[in-house]
Structures are given as C-alpha cells and as structure tokens.
Amino acid sequence: MTRHAKTTALVTGAAHGIGRAIALHLAREGAAVAVIDLDAAGAAATAALLTAEGHRAFATSADITDMTGLAMAVDACEAALGPITLLVNNAAFTDAGNLGGIGLEAWHHEVDVNLNGSYHCLRVLLPRMQARGAGVVVNIASVNGLRYFGNPAYSAAKAGLINLTQSVASEYGRYGIRCNAVLPGSVRTENASWQIRQQKDPAVFEKLARWYPLGRVAEPDDVAKAVSFLASDDASYITGVALPVDGGLLAGMNVMIGEFILES
Ligand SMILES: NC(=O)c1ccc[n+]([C@@H]2O[C@H](COP(=O)([O-])OP(=O)(O)OC[C@H]3O[C@@H](n4cnc5c(N)ncnc54)[C@H](O)[C@@H]3O)[C@@H](O)[C@H]2O)c1
Fold first, then answer.
1. Which CATH superfamily is domain 8-189+217-248 in?
2. CA atoms of 193 and 190, how far apart (whole Å)
3. For residue 142, which of 193, 200, 104 has the smallest C-alpha distance?
4. Which sign, positive or negative, has the C-alpha torsion 36, 37, 40, 46?
C-alpha cells in the first residue's frame, strides 16, 4: 500500500507499544520512519523490524524533555531520511495513579514528558515544516485529557496537549500544516501504568472491557489506523480535532446503561 509513499515520519516513543505499532503501520503504507526514544535499544529494535520488512527506517535515542538533545536527534533523523513531513508526538510516561498520592517530583516529571516534551518536538519541527509550506502533526493524547480516569498529572498534561493541538491547527494552517489529536481509551500495552495495574489484577483488561460499548479494550493497531488516516490526504481538510479512539467509552456510561437501562 502506498498511502504514505511521500511521507517521512518521525514517531517519538516508538520503542514500544502504540508507537511501535504506528511506526510499523506507517512503514507498511510506504512511509520512511524515524524513531526517537529514551530507550536506545528498543528504538533500534523497532527500526530493525521495519528494515527487515524492506522499509526505510532510522532510530536514535533522545529525551524529549531535553530541547538541545532532541534538536540534535531530529537533525540526525533528517540527515538519514530527509525532511520530516509527519510528526507523531507519541512518547509519554505515567505511573502516578492518584492525586492524593502523587509527589511533587512525579507531578513535574509527568507534565514535563507528556506536555512539554511534545511542545519541544513541535518547537523543533514547526519552523522547518513552515519553511517548506507543508506538514502534518498527530498528537497522541488520551481520553484522560477530556475526563478523569486516574493519573492526574498525565491527564492534566494530555488536556494541555489537546489544547496545544488547537493552537497549532489555528496558527499554522496558513502554512499548509495540519495538526490533530488522537485520544485512545485503554490500550493493551505494557506501559508502566498498566504493569502496576496488571500486577494488582492480571485480568485488568478483561474487567475493563465492560466499560466499552465495543466490548473490548483497544489493541495498539486500532490507534495506528486512526493515526494513519489523520496523517493521510484522506484527512486533507481535517485539522484541530481531538478524535477519540476509545470503543465508545466517552459516548456514555456503559456499565450504568448495561445495569439499569438495557436490563430493565
Ligand atoms: N496504553 C494505553 O492504554 C494508552 C491510553 C491512552 C493514551 N495512550 C498514549 O499512547 C502513547 C503510547 O503509549 P504506550 O502505552 O504505547 O506507552 P509505552 O510506555 O509502551 O511507550 C512509550 C514510549 O515513550 C518513551 N518515552 C518515555 N519518556 C520519554 C522521553 N522523556 N523521551 C523519549 N521517549 C520517552 C518510552 O521509552 C516508551 O518507549 C502515549 O502518548 C500514551 O499516553 C496510551
């Protein structure tokens, strides 16, 4: 498939989980894909998966909270693959579950990674896209940016990322740049937050399924497909949206409806 034959994508946080699925999906649709991640070995493993399938890929390690190191990493990506035409702000971190228990340092760290880190990537790449008169950004936010489901610092940062999406769409549309956000619900990955919950309850994903009208949590590829669409020309008139990819979680109170409405 050649939907992204002219795309050179940078996917942050693609050493694992959803980011890796996005990288694979875009590559299989023709994109050259650069990976930036804190985890150098994981990033290299993702790039190796892509090149093994015959796709163009490059991986480097950087911390998105460090503006200087990040800019150097983006330079290395562009030197290897050419100008980045698509930025997917995917890197994120949370392990602090509730407001009463979160420490000050954890609060600052989660806001720094989940909001400031994405801003740093935009700060590096928007002027380059503007100079070329084209570019696409997809920010991986979360349903947590619209409602509270735990992880307060992460959630506040994701709410900020949704608003930042609107800033970029509003200010940079005139330069041919589109910017949208994808808001996943629960996705079956092994991120820090899910590892903690799975240690407490190995059946956590199965128990969560009843909150979702579609009857299951998401797989990483469910998110990757939405990213691919928003990044493609099929979405050429879509900018500034926050698209839930949540199996209907935000549509209503599925457990309440199941217990009091459908069974009444
Ligand atoms: N898994 C879910 O249920 C879920 C739900 C909603 C939204 N999301 C969002 O999807 C995206 C991917 O989530 P995931 O579950 O695949 O997470 P993950 O933890 O598996 O992957 C995140 C990646 O980001 C990297 N990373 C973390 N901090 C970084 C930093 N400072 N600099 C560079 N890289 C850094 C990690 O090394 C990791 O490879 C995130 O934006 C997350 O908020 C996930």
1. NAD(P)-binding Rossmann-like Domain (3.40.50.720)
2. 8
3. 193
4. negative
Query: In the chain, what are the helix, strand and coil shares in percent, each to the nearest 5?
Result: 55, 15, 30
Residue 1 pLDDT: 66
pLDDT value, residue 164: 99
Q: What is d(CA 64, CA 194) in angstroms, rounded to the nearest whole number?
A: 22
Q: Which residues are tagged catalytic?
A: 154, 158
Spatial neighbors of 37 by CB under 8 A, at least 6 apart, are 12, 13, 14, 15, 16, 19, 43, 46, 59, 61, 62, 91
pLDDT of 246 reads 98
All structural domains of the chain with their residue ranges:
8-189+217-248
Q: What is the pLDDT of residue 264?
A: 65
Q: How many CB atoms lie within 10 A of CB 188?
A: 16
Q: Which residue has the tokens 């509003």?
A: 170
CA of 237 to the centre of ligand 1 (A): 28
Residues in the chain, pLDDT under 50: none
For ligand 1, which residues put their CB under 6 angstroms from it? Answer: 12-13, 15-19, 37-39, 42, 63-65, 90-93, 113, 117, 140, 142, 184, 186-187, 189, 191
Global pTM reads 0.98
